[in-house]
Design goal:
By secondary structure, this protein is an alpha+beta fold. It has 16 helices and twelve strands. Strands 2, 6, 7, 8, 9 and 10 form a six-stranded antiparallel sheet that branches. A two-stranded antiparallel sheet has the order 1-3. The longest helix is centred in the middle third of the chain and has 30 residues, at about 310-340. The structure holds adenosine monophosphate and magnesium ion.
């Protein structure tokens, strides 16, 4: 039914633990991702079946497969934990996708592992469906992310604050190596382990670095570039990751760990959703700085590989971490220019765009709607944009300044259409996500979840008046949205 390899298990034994998924009483396929199966070169028809549910629920391990849980460490909310690891995730194996890229297939919620540290190794249905929905939405938005291949109900209850139905998510990643994986070996002064890990990562994710002069420094630079791009793109769509611990920071540059993440409604740079992030460490506007902090932790682990002189290594690595800031700023600004329809760059663009953000913040304007409706203004129809603001005079004034700026570019009949490609109409809005999950959990009704998945698959395309409620901002009930880690 499926043929898997496992290159990670050719690494030394201290990198992982052999472990088999724990059986579940009644595996049932809730959602299978046929488009992704095709991309992976898998037989979707065969897998979207009771036999597929047995496999993705953890009851049947395909022949010849040696599943593992990966060891890692990590800084959680700034505090270092030397021993984490896949506490509820089991790497089934790897497939080569249609483009020749090796991808991990991992079961999340498949039972206890040697790294479970008192946890039950399980996942509840709500968080599994939530990760399915949001990670696939991120992909459709064009943002690098782990993917969701299957969601399987287990028939087992999981015990959290209440008793909840259990489920297993099959997660697909270019690799599950994290900053925390490097920290695991660095914390043990295991330079051989570090080198083996770095070489594995280069071979798999950055093969162009195989024969360069300074592969480990260049590896840091590559990861840094990918993180800068990733975080900027998150912020362009109003995404708050919520738990940017170093163990949730992927070396491949994919978004990983969808626990407490959520999309911002009204623009507020201080937005934080996670109930455990009391100090707001991972608030919207802190994300670029936190990614840089995480890169500094990665840099520290790589020092012994970068140069035999520690001073030289520190200097070189530090430069990469410093350069990250400008790289982020470039991607962030370029994206904002595209979002506002600017095809060229002028020195004062930053001021123009910041003044829009200030107005949006002051009037608590919905992030997604504001940018999308600005394309109506590019078509000459100002009311949709302007009506979002309380201070309409200020909005009008901003539109005039914006038009003056656009007038310095050559007239572009495709401007509004280009803006629509940058500014999604549909995102996983919190109230709609909750609505879809509630129907699935409370009424066994996957209809709203299915419908929402389908809408989010084409986030930039107007899907007509029937679906207009999916494009609307949350009703203002005065209650701030809260997320939970889902563990
Ligand atoms: P996270 O907050 O999801 O990034 O997880 C942090 C650590 O806790 C990782 O080592 C996870 O594998 C582990 N973990 C989270 N939930 C559970 C669970 N239910 N059972 C065992 N380990 C878990
Ligand atoms: Mg995690």
């Amino acid at each position: 039914m499926i043929s898997l390899s496992n290159t990670y298990s050719s690494l030394p034994g201290r990198f992982y633990a052999h472990v088999r998924p724990t059986s579940v009483p009644q595996p049932q396929m809730l959602k299978f991702n046929h488009a992704l199966a095709t991309e992976l070169g898998l037989d979707g028809k065969a897998l979207d079946s009771p036999a597929g549910a047995e496999m993705f629920g953890g009851n049947k391990v395909p022949e010849g497969v040696t599943p593992i849980a990966m060891a890692y460490a990590g800084h959680q909310f700034g505090g270092f934990v030397p021993q984490l690891g896949d506490g509820r995730a089991i790497l089934l194996g790897e497939v080569i996708d249609r483009t020749g890229i090796r991808r991990d297939l991992q079961l999340k919620g498949a039972g206890r592992t040697p790294y479970s540290r008192g946890g039950d190794g399980r996942a509840a249905l709500g968080p599994v469906l939530r990760e399915y929905l949001v990670s696939e939405a991120m992909h459709a938005l064009g943002i690098p992310t782990t993917r969701a291949l299957a969601a399987v109900a287990t028939g087992d209850p999981v015990y959290r604050e209440s008793v909840l139905p259990g489920a297993v998510l099959t997660r697909v990643a270019a690799s599950h190596v994290r900053v925390g994986t490097f920290q695991f070996f660095a914390a043990r002064d295991d330079v051989d382990g570090l080198k083996a890990l770095a070489d594995y990562v280069i071979d798999r994710l950055y093969p162009e670095l195989r024969s360069v002069d300074s592969p480990y420094l260049d590896l840091l630079r590559r990861v840094s570039e990918r993180q800068a791009t990733l975080v900027a793109r998150w912020m362009h769509v109003g995404f708050v990751h919520g738990v940017m611990n170093t163990d949730n920071c992927s070396i491949s540059g994919e978004t990983i760990d969808f626990g407490p993440c959520a999309f911002m409604d009204a623009y507020d740079p201080g937005t934080v959703f996670s109930s455990i992030d009391r100090a707001g460490r991972y608030q919207y506007q802190n994300q670029p700085g936190i990614a840089q902090w995480n890169l500094a932790r990665l840099a520290e682990t790589l020092l012994p590989l970068i140069d035999t002189s520690i001073d030289a290594a520190v200097e070189k690595a530090n430069q990469v971490v410093v350069d990250y800031a400008a790289m982020f700023q470039d991607v962030w600004s370029a994206g904002l220019r595209r979002k506002t329809g600017l095809a060229t760059a002028e020195a004062e663009d930053g001021i123009l765009i910041q003044s829009l953000l200030d107005l949006m913040q002051r009037d608590k304007v919905d992030w997604t709607s504001a940018f999308r409706k600005l394309s109506d203004s590019a078509r000459g129809e100002d009311t949709p944009f302007w009506s979002l603001f309380e201070d309409r005079a200020a909005a009008d004034q901003w539109l005039s300044a914006w038009r003056q700026r656009l007038n310095r570019e050559k007239d572009d009949p495709k401007r509004a259409a280009r803006m629509d490609q940058e500014n999604p109409l549909y995102i996983p809005r919190n109230h709609l996500v909750e609505e879809a999950l509630a129907a699935a959990i409370n009424n066994n009704d996957l209809g709203p979840f299915e419908a929402f998945c389908q809408i989010l698959a084409s986030p930039y395309v107007d899907q007509g008046p029937d679906r207009s409620r999916y494009a609307q901002a949350a009703p203002q009930d005065g209650q701030p949205y809260r997320t939970f880690c889902g563990t």
